[in-house]
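ARCHIVE CARD
SHELF: 3
SLOT: left
DATA:
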Amino acid sequence: MGRYSPRDILVLAVIAGLFVWFYFFRGQSVGPEQIASILFLGAALLVAITIHEFSHAFVALLLGDRTAQMLGRVSLNPIRHLDLYGTLAFIFFHFGWGKPVPINPYNMKSVNPLVGAAITAIAGPTSNVVLAILATIALRLARGSADPLALSFLQLLAQLNILLAAFNFMPIPPLDGFSLARLVLPRHISGWLEQYGFFVLIALIFLPQFLGRQFDILGQIMGPLQAIITGIVRSVALTVT
């Protein structure tokens, strides 16, 4: 199997099988446009997650921590970064995550461990912002001359990366934004969030499903973040082009 472990093959096969089943074999009529949209979503998600997780690993290595490198995570191979449950969550619930990159901030050189962990964490969503900028620049340059399918993919890639950046910038563990918030939060609050943050996040995700859209606290937090990131992406793309 070369560089791919049995786990890698199994995870990829399960994700691919469920992706195909969910979008193609549930008794729904699927035309060429829907098929193209589904394939574009899968490709855009693969690119966004791979770059996001690679950025965590690469920045940790730059700061002196080789933990991720020793586990093969400083790689642009998507299989290294796919998480089964995170990808399934994206397929079924339209949010998700990649396989967390293990780091040891105490291995980092010339930087406080908390600061090093924050820099490494923020590298992930920052890379999504950069990808969104690049996709928007390409979209502006290609508009009117490129194939409509290529333009649709670039637009989806930009939107997906903005969404992932906004989601991961939120200061709730285990999301990346918490590592930055931890630098300024009182210790008793950050400690409580480290212990219970995951359950808080799950509750915020499912509250609207059971209690109605008026309880969409997550959306109320993400909305302004998405607006800010979208403004940055458009401003930079407009300046460059």
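SLOT: right
DATA:
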Amino acid sequence: MAEISQVNKNILKAAEKFKDKLAKIKVCIFDIDGILTDGTITYDEALDGYNRTFNIVDGYGLKILMNNGIKVGVVSGGDSKAVRKRFTENLKVDFWFLGNLDKRGAYLEILQMGYTDEEILFMGDEFIDLPVLERVGFSVSVPMASYEIQEAVDYITHYHGGHGAVREICDIVRIAKNLNAKVEGF
């Protein structure tokens, strides 16, 4: 039998370390650019302007959370037809807030749905994410984030944005909460 990777050993340790905080999580919100993507955008008029590339393992991680009753949403200053299609039609996340750089409004809307700060996980990487990162019950960023962002969060992923960082945190939540990893109809 193969030995699990060091990253996966660290994921198991993080799930145990943050188990109490993660036990309260009912909502996971993710920035898009730099978190669900590597931050690269390409412009192609034929493809509706600016477009991004997503990693399938991140999408699968989101589905695992949703299939276990965790509400999942995206919030991004960016907006495009392709982004909307990915999250509203393909992944069918519970909520999305696109096209507004000030993410505090989206966060307040989520709170108005009846959730509390400690029930929300947010994953972001930029200064515009900082007001929400500093408020939520569990905050996450990626290795490429500025040191000020990294100092403000509970956890920094081993994987980079767009390369499995979201799946890493989905796995940590899944393990800490002892959730089923099976996804129907994905």
